[in-house]
Specification:
Elements (H helix, E strand, L loop, with lengths): L1 H48 L4 H27 L1
Length: about 80
């Protein structure tokens, strides 16, 4: 009987670990992708229109704002649960 309860605790512990890892990955991607995407898009637009750092910096700034919003809404969703 003790073996079954130990397995149940291990499963719950593993489940919690995987949920935490998934959350960390989600937060990492929702932070990095908008910033990197903004940098790439801004660089492309700078090369196309000849506005050297302006578009890149603007796009990175917009990416940071989007990243902060993603983190805020993710934490708000976690708090709700």
């Amino acid at each position: 009987m003790e073996k079954n309860s130990t397995k149940g605790r291990q499963r719950g512990s593993n489940n919690k670990l995987f949920r935490s890892l998934a959350l960390a990955g989600n937060l990492g991607l929702s932070t990095a992708l908008p910033i990197v995407g903004g940098a790439l898009l801004g660089s492309f637009l700078d090369n196309k229109f000849g506005t050297s750092p302006k578009m890149t910096l603007s796009s990175i700034f917009i990416g940071i704002i989007i990243s902060v919003a993603n983190i805020y809404f993710t934490i708000k969703e976690i708090d709700k649960n």
